[in-house]
Specification:
- This protein is mostly helical.
- The protein has one domain (4-66).
- 64% of the residues lie in helices and 0% in strands.
- It has four helices and no strands.
- Helix 2 (31-42) runs antiparallel to helix 3 (46-55).
- The longest helix has 12 residues, at 31-42.
- It is globular.
- The chain starts with a helix and ends with a helix.
Length: 67
């Protein structure tokens, strides 16, 4: 059973996000793309942070489902 805080997170962060045209989460980034986003995020780029979050939602959903 999901705890109340997990349901709150899912309702406020995961479900309202734009899904790709196919109705699923964006594919994971390639290693070099992820590295570049991490470097940009470390330099203060919020778009890079958002890209990292969006492309790791598949992992989050998997953990929630099987956790």
């Amino acid at each position: 059973m999901l705890s109340a805080w997990m349901i709150l997170i899912l309702n406020t962060l995961v479900f309202p996000l734009r899904l790709s045209d196919g109705g699923s989460f964006p594919k994971p980034l390639k290693a070099e793309e992820e590295r570049a986003c991490l470097e940009r995020f470390a330099a203060g780029d919020l778009d890079a942070r958002n890209t990292l979050i969006e492309h790791n939602l598949r992992l989050v959903a998997h953990i929630v489902k099987n956790g």
